[in-house]
User: What shape does this take?
Amino acid sequence: MTPAERDMERATRMLARAKHVVVLTGAGISAESGIRTFRDTMRGLWKDFDPATLATPEAFARDPEVVTRWYDHRRLGCLAAEPNAGHTALVAIERGLIRRGGRFTLLTQNVDRLHHRAGSANVHELHGTIVVWRCTATGNELEPPPSPFREFPPRSAWGGLLRPAVVWFGEMLPIPALDAAARALRTCDCFMSVGTSSAVYPAAGFVDLAAASGSGTIEVNPQETPASGRFDVSIRARAGAALPELAARAFGTGT
Ligand SMILES: NC(=O)c1ccc[n+]([C@@H]2O[C@H](COP(=O)([O-])OP(=O)(O)OC[C@H]3O[C@@H](n4cnc5c(N)ncnc54)[C@H](O)[C@@H]3O)[C@@H](O)[C@H]2O)c1
Assistant: This one.
């Protein structure tokens, strides 16, 4: 057995025995749907911009036109994308667990809504979503149609500027999602981190909270990350290849 096969075997055993599986996902799981990771979005028209200078409340206050153009461009990219085999395998894992009386909690840093569109039921969005926009005057939210805004910055019918309902650098993460994460990490017995660089806290610390609760921990990422050494098992493969294999081995095919 190669080391990679041994890791797959250990991860399968962990999943097959688990009663409560918590999965944390990042931009990497959507890369195979053609949605670029943060680093990769900075191409073409946007090559001279830095996400850290666009994804802030200060940038929106200074230049709402540029910020909303960038987010609208990314919103339309998300709406045009389709969930991939990695997203679908997480649905299979959730349904497989529920069938045998277990629990499944999905915590995502992604803003693209692809987990919902794939059919995942128990999803918590830690960074909000780009498909919903919020009126800055009233706080009211709406889901704009799948076509570009006609003016930039867009204005809502209530009079204020519209901004994407995502969490910008320097903003608080939504309390309900953080509470759900804290509760799930206290009770899980299998924690899996998929396609995240594990560079940004608090999500980068979830593996430590899960391990402190006695949970087994699995990382799925083709690249090593700063957190790799803190996982029990690392699967160095694409989510679209590793997750369907894990789902089939742990829950059987046709889940
Ligand atoms: N799809 C989205 O919604 C989206 C896209 C870009 C950025 N963002 C935002 O930017 C932040 C960036 O942090 P992050 O950690 O999510 O992403 P990141 O861009 O920092 O890291 C992506 C990780 O995914 C890995 N990866 C690449 N292809 C993969 C694949 N096929 N399978 C599995 N892993 C793969 C990379 O090795 C890398 O470690 C997020 O918090 C998110 O809010 C979201």
Remarks:
- The longest strand covers residues 128-135.
- The radius of gyration is 19 Å.
